[in-house]
TrEMBL record:
GO terms for biological process: isoprenoid biosynthetic process. The keyword Transferase applies. Gene3D superfamilies: 3.40.47.10. Residues 4-225 form the Thiolase N-terminal domain. The lineage of its organism: Archaea, Methanobacteriati, Methanobacteriota, Methanonatronarchaeia, Methanonatronarchaeales. This is Acetyl-CoA acetyltransferase. Keywords: Isoprene biosynthesis, Transferase. The keyword Transferase applies. CDD domains: SCP-x_thiolase. It comes from Methanonatronarchaeum thermophilum.
């Protein structure tokens, strides 16, 4: 197996992108990544695209071929593959691209993610997203993702005495981080009171505990590590890649306060990278709802189970804390175009490792990206480092 490096990154602005189409969003991110790596379309061996539901959001399927075509590569006949695992589609695309390069099948691979979610009205987007839960046993009975994560929040409060204010603190931190991210959907700070007093979405979660509906795309260029210096003086290496699955429905879980797919994917990634959770300097984790970040910090091993509330309350996950979490603003404030999120996380961690994150820069050598599909049916974890 070959080592793999990231040599180019690209990301659009996240938000309601009325002036951009699905295809133009991806092309914008892809062109940025290619020009960052200083390569042209003719050098690409393969493309993997994370996308959850273009068929329902914009009535377009067959999106990998579409993207290859509109990137001007139809005559090159480059293999282009769509990867779908709900909100973990981007993380999975990264892992597929990583495996294609690591195996020796392809040398230069573009991995990307894209979603255009705001062309449908709000209740339609919630319904489309709910298709990533168990249709027969959850969505059919009216469960939505805000509802499912609200159940997890209530259970965490009951089981571990987690305070409502601690959960709200996740939103406050991530909105603050996003004030320093020019690509973030929401670039304004909020207070705990604002989170607690906002419109209830699913008790106890409010509007500000929720990630938004977002348009956006992100892309990376991957090459074999031994060739990375042909493209850039500063490659970032993928040191570990883990993926795991679990029951798709919440009621079948042994413990709804633990995302076992995260635990298992992290175990694989840490082992491959030869590191412990304490070696991670910065992480982008899947905070689709505030409670999900608390779960992630526990399941990734940054604190004991049940201690996630305390970790955020003590400021340890802030930019200058022991383990800064979601410097981009996370899904909560940077935005969550579901198919693109896993790739955007890797763009942010690469940017951080290169010391190019501006005012939100943290001190780091090793970073982690954590992407979850649905309520935890799928999870991916990637470890990135400046060190080969
Ligand atoms: C929370 C949610 C229901 C809000 O949708 P909505 O009620 O239709 O909200 P609107 O689009 O009408 O926006 C109302 C206002 O709140 C803001 N807003 C919307 N969602 C927001 C969010 N998540 N955080 C902060 N502000 C938000 C909008 O910018 C708008 O502000 P404005 O009036 O100043 O322009 C929706 O964002 C949602 O479903 N989020 C969850 C997405 C999800 O489940 N993803 C998958 C996770 S597994």
């Amino acid at each position: 197996m070959r080592d793999v490096a990231i040599v180019g990154v690209g990301c659009t602005e996240f938000g309601e992108m009325w002036d951009s189409s699905f295809r133009s969003l991806f092309i914008e991110a892809g062109v940025q990544a290619l020009s960052d790596a200083d390569i042209k379309g003719k050098h690409i061996d393969e493309i993997y695209i994370g996308n959850m539901s273009a068929g329902r959001f914009i009535a377009q399927e067959h999106v990998a071929a579409l993207i290859s075509d509109y990137s001007g590569m139809s005559e090159l006949h480059v293999p282009a593959t769509r990867v779908e695992a709900a909100c973990a589609s981007g993380g999975l695309a990264l892992r597929q691209g990583y495996m294609a390069v690591a195996s020796g099948i392809s040398d230069t691979v573009v991995v990307g993610g894209v979603e255009k979610m705001t062309d449908v009205v709000s209740n339609q987007s919630i319904e489309i997203l709910a298709a990533a839960s168990d249709r027969e046993w959850e969505a059919f009975y009216g469960a939505t993702f805000p509802g499912l994560y609200a159940m997890i929040a209530n259970r965490h409060i009951h089981e571990y005495g987690t305070k409502r204010e601690q959960i709200a603190q996740v939103a406050v931190k991530n909105h603050y981080n996003a004030t320093m991210n020019p690509k973030a959907q929401f670039q304004r700070a909020i207070s705990i009171e604002k989170v607690l007093n906002a419109t209830k979405v699913a008790d106890p979660l409010t509007l500000f505990d929720s990630s938004p509906i977002t348009d956006g795309a992100a892309a990376l260029v991957l090459v074999p590590a031994e060739k990375a210096h042909q493209y850039t003086d500063t490659p970032v290496y993928i040191k570990g890649s883990g993926q795991a699955s679990d029951t798709i429905s919440l009621h079948d879980r042994r413990d709804i306060c633990t995302i076992e797919a995260t635990v298992e994917a992290a175990k694989t990634a840490y082992k491959m990278a030869g590191i412990q959770p304490s070696d991670v300097d910065v992480a982008e984790v899947h905070d689709c709802f505030t409670i999900a970040e608390i779960l992630a910090t526990e399941d990734l091993g940054f604190c004991e189970k049940g201690e996630g509330g305390k970790l955020i309350e003590e400021g340890k996950t802030e930019l200058d804390g022991d383990i800064p979490i979601n410097p981009s603003g996370g899904l909560k404030a940077c935005g969550h175009p579901v198919g693109a999120t896993g790739i955007k996380q890797a763009v942010e961690i690469t940017t951080q490792l290169l010391g190019e994150a501006g005012d939100r820069q943290v001190d780091c050598e090793t970073g982690l990206c954590h992407n979850v599909g649905g309520s935890g049916g799928t999870a991916t974890v990637h470890i990135l480092s400046r060190e080969a």
